[in-house]
Each structure stands twice: as C-alpha cells, then as structure tokens.
Amino acid sequence: MFPRVDNNRLKGEQNWLPWAQTMKDLLENIGLRKIITGEELKPSPESPELDIWKAKDSYIRITYSQCVEQEIIPKLAGLNAKAAWDLMENEFKQSGTGFIVYWFHQLFKLAAGTEDIYEYIKQYETAI
Asked: What highest taxon heads this organism's lineage (predicted)?
C-alpha cells in the first residue's frame, strides 16, 4: 500500500497530480475517500460513530506520513486528514502556467527515447 520507492512520494508541485490521483484511488479502494472530500464529516462528540471516524482519520494521516517527503510531514502535524489534504492541495496543485509547464514536460519526456510515432501517440493518449 505504501510507496516502495522514494520517487512515488509526494515531493511538492512537481508530482502533485499523479500522487493525488494515486492517493484518491487508494482511499476510494479502502472506503475512506469521503473523509478527504468532506462528504463524511466528523461526528459530534456524543456520537457512537466518533471512535470509528477517528480510526479512519488516523489511518489516512498515517498513510500520508508514509507517502510524502519528510519535509512535508511537519506541515501536516496536528491536522485531521481532510485539513491535511486541503493544505497539500492548496500548496502543491498546479494551476495556470505551472500546470501547462508540467504537462509540456511530461509530453517531451514521452518523446525522448520513442522512435516510433505510433508508440508516441499511444503513450500520449495514455498520459492524457
């Protein structure tokens, strides 16, 4: 479940998009995505569901700590899973020219080493 190599960890803006999609897919697969989207809110203190929600939230936060670079971890300290997600998204999500540069770089990375135009087009379609 956790990244086995360091280049799968969230480093910052340069890999937010693929990291975020992988994390969303993982959380969807284990039934926890609604916590980071805000669809599943923290129950009231007297609710019997509170302990379950806390366990889910804790699991997501532990997952984050295993899937981000060490420099990011202090920024997430003391935050619940949704607040931590929102912080990372606000800080690292590409927008405007950063988003364009990211995809431009990805497309040229595909082209390097691809001699067959049909293979390049196939990789391009997969990347989009």
From this structure: Eukaryota
